[in-house]
Please model this.
Amino acid sequence: MKLKELPFDLTVCKAASMADIRMDAGFFFIGRTDEEISLVCRTEDTPAETTAREDGWRGFRIEGILDFSLTGILARISGILAEAGIGIFAVSTYNTDYVLVKKENMRRAMEALAAAGYETGNE
Model:
């Protein structure tokens, strides 16, 4: 399985309002519940008004369209990273999964995954 590193820094934050989110940005994830609006976006696209913010994330995508019948893909990756002492923040689209790690752990994460047999590379 191929993992592609995203070529930009990411921020995970709680947006104050949906109106603050740049809907024309090239890469973002929004999660909205009755308690919060969570946003993952390129750091430069982070809204000025947030109620909480954590910069310094990098990410990679699991290449290809992942069928819903496939099981254990994210569990295996997160297990490998947990064994290496690396925490993750995972988000998914209809087609694939994205895994975020703190920027200072990215190289170590990719090395651990490559050692476990994953093909790694940059976008």
Remarks:
- Strands lie at 2-5, 10-15, 28-32, 37-42, 50-62, 89-92, 97-102, 119-122.
